[in-house]
Amino acid sequence: MSIDTATAARVAKLARIAVPEEDLPTLASELNGILAFMEQLNEVDVDGVEPMTSVTPMRLKRREDVVTDGNQQEAILKNAPDAREGFFAVPKVVE
């Protein structure tokens, strides 16, 4: 697939990037380079290769999933203009 200046202008418009008319051939060339690199990557055989999270093999740190209330109710309500019974107090908007 080859990208011409009209396609580059359309891509720039879709990306909401203002590209001057004189820079469209350069953008088209750069996009063609990216597509060529992607085609080169598609030729690589990755069957049996496990996905990696990093270039160095390491296991992600995990913690026990425990539901808590955060124990920060007082700190959160301290900046509230009006708090009652441990909750934010707001004006009534519905009759």
Total strands = 2
Structural class per helix/strand content?
A: mainly alpha
H/E order of the elements? HHHEE
Q: Helix share of residues? A: 25-40%
Give the overall shape, derived from the CA principal axes.
flat
Beta-strand content estimate: under 5%
**How many individual helices?**
3
Q: Kindly report how far apart the N and C termini lie.
A: 63 Å
Largest sheet strand order: 1-2
Low-confidence stretches: none
Major β-sheet annotation: 2 strands, antiparallel
Average pLDDT score: 89
Radius of gyration: 27 Å
Label this structure with key terms:
single chain; 95 residues; mainly alpha; two-stranded antiparallel sheet; 36% helix; flat
Overall description:
This protein is mainly α and 95 residues long. It has a domain at 5-42. The protein is built from three helices and two strands, in the order H-H-H-E-E. It has a two-stranded antiparallel sheet. Strand 1 and strand 2 form a beta hairpin. The longest helix has 19 residues, at 24-42. The chain is flat, with a radius of gyration of 27 Å. The model has no long low-confidence stretch (mean pLDDT 89).
Short description:
The chain is mostly helical and about 100 residues long. Helices cover about 35% and strands about 5% of the residues.
